[in-house]
């Protein structure tokens, strides 16, 4: 059973999904920063 889980975790398809999930937080930060920048620009008008 352990070998099956390890094989699944290190398979190429799983790595892509894990990397995508790990980087999702950075994408959210970028969106948040862009929103804040846009709000600041609008409030300066």
Q: What's the tally of helices?
A: 2
Number of strands: 0
Query: What is the molecular shape?
Result: rod-shaped
Distance between the termini: 62 Å
Percent strand: under 5%
Low-confidence stretches: none
- The average pLDDT score comes to 77
| Strand and helix order | HH
Short characterization:
By secondary structure, the chain is mainly alpha-helical. Helices cover about 90% and strands about 0% of the residues. It has helices spanning about 1-10, 10-45.
Explain how this protein is built.
The protein has 45 residues and is mainly alpha-helical. Helix content is 91%, strand content 0%. It contains 2 helices and no strands. It has helices spanning 2-9, 12-44. The longest helix has 33 residues, at 12-44. It starts with a helix and ends with a helix. 0% of the residues are buried.
């Amino acid at each position: 059973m352990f070998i099956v889980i390890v094989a699944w975790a290190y398979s190429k398809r799983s790595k892509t999904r894990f990397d995508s999930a790990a980087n999702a937080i950075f994408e959210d930060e970028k969106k948040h920063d862009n929103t804040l920048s846009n709000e600041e620009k609008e409030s300066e008008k």
